[in-house]
Design goal:
alpha/beta, six-stranded mixed β-sheet, 24% strand, 297 residues, 5 helices, binds fe (ii) ion, 16% helix
């Protein structure tokens, strides 16, 4: 009975109990005016998730300077229009996106507990993607967002000149870091790296190239967390301590890479696979990060 109650809570209540997390990141050069970055991830939208859609639609009122979308935006062939409508005027703000595996492949029924003993990486068939990922990308690019899937680019946001590099999803090995490799432009006001799954092998390269702040999603914060213990799994190679939230890479206590250490923000995301529709002690979230100057000169 308690189990049934917990499952009902996890699938009905907490899954729709969206929250906006806030954090401050001391990453800008001294004297720079702060900017506000809205990080959304793992929306996994289907056209029936009306509560999620209306919550998303309210985010533009926060007036972010930049929106970062770390993928897994859709979970249904008809979801692109719903996503565009929900994001609304956010798409007219400066934005950057990458794809996650679930933007390409339709969700399939699975044992939701399976992720406790294996990551989902090997579940993807080697056949053609069956979700409209190009239409999804075009919808964001048409409104001016930067497609950072194995691309470098430049974004102006909040008066800052931001050098951006991103990769397609490392979880299904579509990342091609070599296409974006090389030192991040030291002349930019900020150097930003973006990916779906926070795989350490990719984080290492961004950090070594001098990116100041890295954005990722994918983990769903563990999705089911044990109070007092935290996430059971991360669904990738990152450690459980950094399953979500603001951390550094390499983490404190480990040597910097080529003299660099990056900030890392992992979003616990807003949705779930339609076939694993539950979250526990891990509320669905978006995050407003205020980037502020580093201390000292
Ligand atoms: Fe996801």
């Amino acid at each position: 009975m308690a189990g049934a109650g917990a499952l009902a809570y996890a699938s009905v209540v907490e899954r729709n109990w969206f929250t906006l997390r806030q954090a401050e990141v001391p990453v800008l050069a001294p004297g720079t005016t702060p900017i506000r970055v809205l990080h959304i991830s793992d929306v996994h939208l289907t056209p029936r998730r009306t509560r999620l859609m209306s919550w998303l639609a309210g985010l533009d009122r926060l007036e972010p300077d930049l929106v970062v979308n770390t993928g897994d935006s859709i979970a249904h062939p008809e979801a692109v229009r719903a996503l565009v409508d929900s994001l609304g005027p956010l798409l007219d703000r400066p934005g950057i996106f990458v794809y996650g595996s679930n933007d390409l492949y339709r969700p399939t029924p699975k044992n939701p507990a399976r992720y406790l003993w294996e990551t989902s990486a090997r579940r993807y068939p080697r056949n053609e993607p069956d979700l409209p990922w190009q239409k999804l990308g075009d919808a964001m690019v048409d409104r001016g967002w930067l497609d950072a899937n194995n691309h470098r680019g430049r974004v102006k946001a909040g008066g800052l000149d931001i050098a951006v590099a991103g990769v397609h999803d490392p979880h299904i090995k579509r990342d091609r870091y070599d296409r974006v490799a090389g030192p991040a432009d030291p002349a930019a006001d900020l150097r930003l790296g973006i990916m779906h799954a926070p795989e350490p092998r990719v984080l290492d390269r961004f950090a070594a190239d001098g990116y100041d702040i890295l954005f990722a999603g994918h983990t769903h914060g563990g999705q089911l967390r044990v109070p007092g213990y935290g996430a059971l799994v991360t669904n990738c190679e990152i450690d459980r301590d950094r399953v979500s939230g603001l951390h550094q890479h390499p983490p404190a206590g480990q040597p910097a890479l080529d003299g660099h250490r990056a900030w890392l923000h992992v979003s616990a995301g807003l949705g779930t696979s339609p076939w694993a529709p539950a979250r526990f002690a891990c509320r669905p979230e978006a995050t407003m990060l205020t980037l502020v100057p580093r201390a000292g000169a």
